[in-house]
Design goal:
The complex is a heterodimer of chains A (about 450) and B (about 375).
Chain A lengths: L37 H4 L16 H14 L10 E2 L2 E8 L13 H19 L4 E8 L2 E9 L2 H11 L10 H12 L7 E8 L10 H10 L3 E6 L5 H10 L7 E3 L3 H10 L8 H10 L3 E5 L3 E9 L6 E7 L6 E2 L4 E2 L6 E2 L2 H5 L2 H4 L6 E2 L2 H7 L28 H4 L13 E2 L6 E2 L1 H11 L3 H4 L14
Parallel strand pairs in A: 2-3, 2-5, 5-6, 6-7, 8-13
Antiparallel strand pairs in A: 3-4, 9-10, 10-11, 12-13, 14-15, 15-16
Helix pairs in contact in A: 3-4, 3-8, 5-6
Chain B lengths: L1 H29 L14 E8 L2 H6 L6 H18 L4 E7 L4 E5 L28 H19 L3 H6 L5 H19 L26 H4 L9 E8 L8 H13 L4 E5 L7 H8 L3 E3 L3 H5 L1 H9 L3 H4 L15 E2 L6 E2 L1 E5 L1 E2 L11 E2 L1 H7 L20
Parallel strand pairs in B: 1-2, 1-4, 4-5, 5-6
Antiparallel strand pairs in B: 2-3, 7-8, 9-11
The chains are: A alpha/beta (about 450), B alpha/beta (about 375).
């Protein structure tokens, strides 16, 4: 949401003081036919629904539901380089502005709830990464939890943070400086990210924040900000400069759903830019040695190397045979990173993203003759009468049918272009978001094998 | 045939639902709270069975455990599962060498012709007064579909691959389970049901207070699901990524993956059972295979809720968690990983983990290696 109003698109970045008197910029009047601002296009206009040919709006409503389910699916599925070893700092705003009740129950409580979900999802998607949490309160940056790979530490700290009342003003500079210090010792083969949730419309800093921004750029820290109130120029500048000109790193949440969606989208491993890979090649920090221990079960309890507790099972380090309790871990004896191959495998679906499925028009549904979803065996709506006839003209009843909402298929079928099977909307969402496999492609070793007579 | 069986299943559910609305009305009549008594009704359970019908592997087992005997034992097990709770359901998939097909419920026929009305040939089992009707229908459908599957297998299909399409069968099972969970679970606040639009939702609730879900009376109407895999094939590494995707999906949805191995090496199925909280058992000797039904009943009949109160087999063994190298597919316990996940267009090949054997050949600065280990990294001590 970079430009909410097209009038301000020419606002210059470096010229803070002199912008007000800038020539050629009309302040008060808008042109007669003003173009719709970008945010207005996404507003849901329920009163403009069109009725179908038979007077019912059921077709349009069903289409709206399917379209909203699919909206999140239609994203770019190009395989790109992504960093899977992430060192991320989550900075939460604990200033006065977070007591506002525009997000239920208050901004602060909702942020804590979403942060707990974020922590769980982050460690599920990025098992070998590390996370730390900071808070901005009364002009200072406070450490809520240290950088670690254990989600329970963070969740405990967040639950304790619910009790502290938000107070004072936030300070972006202090938060960024503390983040820089925490990320200073992280190895260069991982990504360094800071995610800031800012509800206030100001930042009270002890010095010049531009120096901090320059230091962040030098340290290769990428900052993303989620605003809760309105767009701020300094936030946009921080995000743009640390992300090499990428405007999409700064977003303002419009409601709870949007806020959660933006926060959860950060759990996806970030795309590496060309500058990162150049730096990596220079560092030659490309390959890391890791151990894949097996679990053992012992007859008699022995001491574990990580806590010193007596346990009857655990994982033996592949190099030095020290016993650790949980994975992922770093061996306390020889510093070898120990992980399960399943932890790495969680990132594979980014490597081979599932292609989007296309909507199926009635003509194709008629040709293929699918009566039930390939994945879940639920029935599709039957092909309507006018399509049953062999010679079908393009005009006539076909066009009188109301177009369903954008993104929804008129026949409720969605086709995978590789295997040609038809699926329902629920299987579409499920396959793309949870399983990342196409049931049709996986169930056929060679797509030209003749199908079974019972249409399986 | 399929219409009848699905109708009978839906009928069983309709019985449960209408019972509740009657109870609701009765509350007003005599002022007792009948909602409290609903807690004792057990949750219906959907058992999805994936039968590995790899012809190569079953041919090797033919003298100790032929496929017909295995299927007969499986049918007894299915009948036992259906008998435990009248609302229990079952679904069976076959994972064959070149396709994964439904054995039960029978899928409908595609209507490619304009004159057919799309219904499959409704075949009924022969009327037998001594056989419980749902059992008879299920057995008939399963055996008919299995026979069709085997008869339509071409020699080319068999010779194309020695392995089986387990990932495909698992994916189809998962989509079916997700749809069944959606249609039977009431969608209220969405707190305890899985919400697909929400990337962070976890089955069992998004609520941060874990005691919220345990006491709601809705929990006994939720469908509990589990998957049982009867596996005979050995090497599954050709579809490793797809298989891991399905395993993570099961983990996310809290669906236990139980695995009974009749033949073949364990590869990654042991990890799968361990990650999802399922039971892994391997039958290696003919004596053990002869006791197939006993193993099925003992280990795999109790649902996850009952398993908490029972001592289950397979928990005390260690699990082999080693990984496979991407380039040579060898199992390794120490390897080299890329810190990023990427697709390389320069080298023309795709690699993420490298075992020690090929490490020396791939780097552009291979001459800098020491002692043959050659692990690179700016912060080697990290």
């Amino acid at each position: 949401m970079a430009d909410s109003d097209h009038e301000y698109s020419n606002h210059s970045d470096e010229d803070d003081a002199g912008a007000l008197g800038g020539g050629g910029r009309s302040l008060a009047s808008r042109p007669k036919e003003r173009a719709q601002a970008r945010w207005e296009e996404t507003v849901n206009r329920n009163w403009e629904l069109q009725e179908g040919a038979d007077g019912s709006i059921e077709g349009v409503l069903g289409g709206l539901e399917e379209a909203s389910k699919r909206k999140r699916l239609l994203k770019d599925t190009t395989p790109l380089q992504r960093g899977i070893i992430r060192h991320t700092l989550l900075v939460l705003d604990q200033s006065d502005a977070m007591n506002e009740k525009d997000l239920r129950p208050t901004r602060h409580l909702l942020t804590i709830n979403y942060a707990i979900m974020f922590v769980r999802e982050f460690f599920e998607q990025n098992p070998i990464s590390q996370l730390g949490i900071l808070g901005m309160r009364e002009g200072l940056a406070k450490r809520l939890s240290d950088m670690s790979g254990n989600p329970n530490d963070h969740i405990t700290a967040l639950k304790a943070a619910r009790a502290t009342e938000p107070k004072g003003n936030p300070s972006l500079q202090n938060a960024l400086d503390m983040a820089r210090a925490a990320l200073h010792h992280t190895p260069s083969h991982g990504t360094r990210e800071v995610v800031i949730v800012l509800g206030a419309l100001l930042t009270s800093d002890p010095g010049d924040i531009h120096d901090t921004i320059k230091a962040c750029i030098r340290d290769k820290i990428r900052v993303r900000i989620i605003g809760l109130a309105a767009q701020m120029h300094i936030c946009a500048e921080i995000c743009r400069k640390t992300n090499a000109g990428d405007e999409t790193a700064y977003n303002v949440a419009v409601d709870e759903v949007d806020y959660k969606q933006q926060l959860m989208s950060i759990t996806t491993p970030p795309v590496l830019r060309a500058t990162d890979t150049e730096a990596q090649k220079q560092n030659q920090a490309a390959l890391l040695m890791m151990g894949f221990p097996s679990r053992i079960a012992e007859e008699r309890p022995t001491l574990c190397a990580c806590h010193g507790n007596l346990t009857r099972g655990g994982y033996l380090c592949s190099r030095c045979k020290a016993k650790v309790c949980n994975l992922p871990a770093t061996c306390p004896t020889c510093d070898l990173t120990l992980i399960l191959s399943t932890h790495l495998a969680r990132s594979y679906h980014h490597l081979f993203p599932l292609k989007n499925w296309v909507e199926v028009p009635w003509s194709r549904a008629q040709k293929k003759g699918s009566v039930q979803c390939f994945g879940c065996l639920s029935a599709f709506p039957a092909v309507p009468g006018e399509y049953q006839m062999a010679n079908r003209s393009e005009n006539g009843p076909a066009n009188a049918r109301t177009k369903r909402a954008e993104g929804a298929s008129e026949s409720s079928r969605y086709e995978c272009e590789t295997c040609g099977e038809h699926f329902c909307i629920d299987c579409d969402v499920f396959s793309h978001e949870v399983v990342h496999n196409c049931p049709g492609c996986q169930s056929r070793a060679h797509p030209d094998v003749a199908e079974m007579p019972n249409g399986g | 045939m399929d219409m009848n069986t699905t109708t009978s299943n839906k009928y069983l559910f309709a019985y449960v639902d209408s019972g509740q609305s009657v109870k609701g009305k009765m509350n007003a009549v005599d002022a007792t709270d009948r909602a409290a008594t609903q807690q004792e009704v057990e949750a219906p359970s959907l058992l999805t069975i994936i039968l590995d019908t790899n012809p190569h592997a079953w041919a090797l087992l033919a003298d100790t455990l032929p496929l017909s005997k295995g299927v007969a034992n499986l049918l007894v097990f299915i009948n036992a599962h259906l008998s435990i709770n009248y609302a229990n359901r079952v679904a069976v998939l076959a994972s064959h060498s070149e396709r994964a097909e439904w054995l039960y419920p029978t899928p409908a026929v595609h209507n490619n012709n304009e004159d057919s009305n799309g219904s499959s040939a409704a075949v009924q089992p022969p009327d037998d007064a001594n056989k419980y009707r749902p059992f008879a229908q299920l057995e008939y459908a399963l055996l008919t579909n299995l026979q069709t599957l085997l008869h339509t297998t071409t020699p080319a299909a068999i010779s194309s691959s020695p392995s089986t399409l387990l990932a495909g069968a698992l994916t189809r099972a998962l989509t079916y389970i997700s749809k069944q969970s959606l249609s039977t679970g009431p969608s209220q606040t969405g707190n305890t049901s899985f919400n697909y639009s929400d990337p962070s939702s976890v089955a069992g609730g998004n609520s941060l207070n874990p005691s919220d879900d345990a006491t709601t009376s809705r929990s006994n109407q939720r469908l509990t699901t589990r998957i049982l895999i009867l596996s005979v094939s050995g090497d599954l590494s050709s579809s490793y990524i797809e298989l891991m995707n399905t395993i993570f999906a099961c983990q996310r949805l809290s669906i236990p993956l139980d695995i009974l191995k009749l033949a073949g090496s364990a590869t990654f199925l042991q990890q799968a059972a361990d990650t999802t909280g399922g039971i892994y058992l391997s039958l290696t000797t003919p004596v053990q295979r002869a006791g197939l039904l006993q193993y099925l009943m003992f280990a795999y009949l109790p649902d996850p809720a009952a398993r908490e109160n029972l001592v289950m087999p397979g928990e005390t063994e260690g699990v082999d968690f080693r990984a496979a190298c991407f380039c040579h597919k060898r199992v390794v316990d120490v390897g080299w990983d890329l810190s990023i996940v990427w697709e390389s267009f320069d080298d023309g090949e795709l690699w993420e983990e490298a075992c020690g054997c090929c490490e020396g050949e791939e780097g552009e600065d291979g001459g800098e290696e020491e002692e043959g280990w050659g692990w690179r990294g700016g912060d080697a001590g990290e």
